[in-house]
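chain below, 320 aa
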Amino acid sequence: MLNILSYINGKRKTSTSGWTSFNAPCCIHNGETADRRMRGGLKFSTDTDWSYHCFNCGYTASFTLGYPVSYKAQRLLKWMGVPEIEVQRLNLESLKHKDVNQILRERADEEQRVHFNETSLPANARLIEDSDSEIIEYLRNRGIDPWDYPYMIDPDQPRLGVLIPYTYNNKIVGHTTRFLDNRRPKYLHEQQTGYVFGIDNQHDNWQFVVVVEGQFDALSIDGVAVTTNRISDTQAAVLRRLNREVVVVPDHDQAGLALIDDAVKYGFSVSIPEWDADIKDINDAVQRYGRLNTLIDIINNKNSSKVKIELARKALKRKL
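prediction:
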C-alpha cells in the first residue's frame, strides 16, 4: 500500500489531534503563491484511509480503501511527486479490498443496531438467602459459587427453580429459570433475540472472551453464553463490541459442530480441549477438573487457523 507520508518534502509536524502539517503542494496549481507556512493538512482515519485539506487555497481530497482513487486524490498525489504507476497500483490494490470493506461496513452498521429493551423480573422474585438450601446445594454441586451472581427465586412458580436475571448495560433485559426437579421443561426463558448472556460480567482488561452454549457453562468460567448452538449476526456484533479475541468452546456433541461452523463464519477462534469422553460441556469440566484447570485447557487448545479448527472439528466428530 502507498505510504503517502514518504512523499512529503521538507519539514512536517503532527499535532495531538492527528493532523500532519506540511507545505501544501496544491496552492501553486490553484492560483495561489507557493505555501511556505505548512498549511497543508493530512489526517488518517484508519491505517489506510486519509483526508487532505489545504488551509490556504481550500483544496480537499480523500482516499478510502475499497474505493477507486478519486480524481482530486490523483491530482494531489501527482503534485506530491507520486509516480503515475504508483497511483495506478494504489487504485488496483484498493479495488481488491472492496468486498472486505463492504463486510466491515456491514458489521459496523449491525453493531449500531444492537439494542435490547429493558424488561421486568417476575413481580415477587427475590434474591436467594441462606435458607434457600436446595438452590444453594444445586449451584454448589455444579461447581458454582451461589453468591457470585444475583441468583433469585420466584415463589409464584409451582416448581422450585433458580432464576437467573439477564442484564445488558446493567439493565434487566430478560431472565431464565432452571427448575431443580429435572422434569421437562427444565428451563423457562424470557429472552430477546440476539441476546448474549454474561456480557456485563466481562472486564475491560481481559484479553479474550470465552463463548459457550449454556448459562451455567458461562457462569462456571466467567464466560458468555449464546444459549443455543448457533451464533446469530446480532450476537456476533455484541461479541465484537468487546474488542478482544473471541474464543468459542462448543459442547462435545453433534449440536456443538454447528457452533464451530458459526465461529469460523464470523472469524472467531475455537477451542476443543481433549477432555474425558463423558465430559460434554464446560460445566462438566469444571466439576471434574476445577475452574482454573478448565480455563488453562481452553487457552492451550484455542486456534484461529481455519485449517487447524477443521482438523479439531473432524477429531471431535469421530469421537461422537
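The longest helix spans residues 98-113. The chain has three domains: 4-113, 117-192, 193-320.
thats it, cya
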